[in-house]
Amino acid sequence: MSPVLNVGFLGCGHIASALAQGWSTFGASAEPPVRLFGYDIRAEAMAQIAAVHGVTPVDSPQALADQADVVIVAVRPSEVPTALAAVETHLLERPIISLAATVTIAALRDRLPTGARVGRAIPNVAVARGCGLVVWADGTLGDRAEDLRALFAPLGTVVDVPEHLFDEATVVAACGPGFTALFIEAFEEAGVAVGLDWRVAAELALGAVAGTVELVRHTGDTGGVRRAVSTPGGMTIAGIEQLELARLRPALMAAVRAAVDRGRAKK
Q: Domain 170-265 carries which CATH code?
């Protein structure tokens, strides 16, 4: 095995920065160690990811492909055809991992040389803190799939998902932080509404959510955790009654469906 794995970001935007932060902070356990390179048509994006996360900038997509052992396509779905067109002849010998939501492996391979090895990964932003989720599909990576999947392991939990369910998994994993942040924000505001200071309300709301995540992770039983704190006739069950009357569950189901539909509409 090579002493260093050279990872090239084709695109240096938000999610590439999150991955770079995760690898630069938590990648010491990676085997082999990771060295990061990046190219973006926006000079300011390259300068930012280089200054903050130690990614080495290169001056062209071709130079990136030549330098990298694996190329991570980290551009918007609409930009994928242009990005691949610039480097397609350089990619036959290198595995490619696409982070582009809604762009299938078949669509990627249509724009690459015959035999190209392609996989997909959808990380959420928490990979920057080593506690993220990565939705994963081996695609045509073949004998490289295992070691490239392991590349993401220091960043959080890697979940294998059949590609035909990637849109749905992307919403739960990658849109989930947005939904959860909205819930925490609303929880903070509710605390303020009953008289708590903003800072105290924020600390309590975040702590309650973080602690609950750990309880559920340990027990694997969301209903059990909820029942454990719901004393008959008590405060928790009174609040849960209002959340059920407000149709929290159907609202979340509708949010997930709307996000899936929006993603598919962009294909």
A: 1.10.3730.10
